[in-house]
Amino acid sequence: MKEHNGSNQRPKIVVIGGGTGLPVVLSGLRTQNADITAVVTVADDGGSSGVIRDYINVVPPGDIRNVLVALSDIPQIYKEIFQYRFDTKDSFFSGHAIGNLVIAALSEMNGDDIFLAVQKLAQLMRVDGKVYPAASVPLELNAEFSDGTHLAGEAEITAAEKHIKRIWVTGNDGEKPAARPEVIQAIMEADQIVLGPGSLFTSILPNLMIENVGRAVCETQAEVVYICNIMTQKGETEKFTDADHVRVLNQHLKHRFVDTVLVNTEKVPQNYLDHQKYNEILNQVKYDFKGLREQDCRVISDDFLELRDQGVFHNGAKVVEELIRLAGRPHSWVADRYN
């Protein structure tokens, strides 16, 4: 593994994932002196993204939209317009975010090249960093469950509420998808690869299951840091410990590629979480230090908890502080910490 590239250069940090966790980390990293690349999942088939994907066969734009906003330097009012979601009474546009429609339009204007469309939009939005779709075609998520059954589609997989044995992705034509060379180059040249926070089977693994992405993450000399979820998720990680999360990642890539894991050890207050508002969230992920060390990874445990709106989130500032500290240290640094 390589050491940090020197105090006079910005550390190159590649963040891979999707969902609501990715923008939290990116927003924090944007305030630091880091060279950021976001590799964003394109396997979402729900909500506005799913409808747009089905109608015009474009990469689902929702996660890309949120990442662009997180890294954008445009005035706040423009961000609010870009993020605005039409009300349900607007029957034709109901549920669609303006940004999703803009991304779909730019893709069509550029010969259905979503990668080029996102690069042009990133310029318009004065994005500080790079935003790369994990693949240039919509991905279909496939799962095999422990009972031997199979399902396709992110929404269907999580709704089944079965124990997931493994997942894989296919292109919309059934072929094996591949990431653009720019994605692989960013991973190979990085000082640090950050996975998460995000849904294990539907936000993180779909990216790593793209063959050349998974291979690059295993072969890069960058330190691979996994930000473990604080809570378990219905239909995905029920009863999981933090070690179970890492074990699933390593098993899918058939390699112990996770170098460092950030885990929250602060207790979530009983009865704080609004389970109706956050209906996919179950219980707090259990801490298993011994199991984590059995996966040959460095463990950094701390209070990364943020409570707001009766929900449980990562404290973005504390997570980013730890990431920047890691990015500035040689890999030989011993960083195990205990509460």
UniProtKB/TrEMBL annotation:
GO terms for biological process: regulation of cell shape. Pfam families: CofD. It is found in: Cytoplasm. PANTHER family: GLUCONEOGENESIS FACTOR-RELATED (PTHR30135:SF3), UNCHARACTERIZED PROTEIN YVCK-RELATED (PTHR30135). This is Putative gluconeogenesis factor. GO terms for molecular function: LPPG:FO 2-phospho-L-lactate transferase activity. Keywords: Cytoplasm. InterPro entries: CofD, CofD-like_dom_sf, Gluconeogen_factor. Required for morphogenesis under gluconeogenic growth conditions. HAMAP family: Gluconeogen_factor (MF_00973). One of its GO terms (cellular component) is cytoplasm. NCBIfam families: CofD_related (TIGR01826). Belongs to the gluconeogenesis factor family.
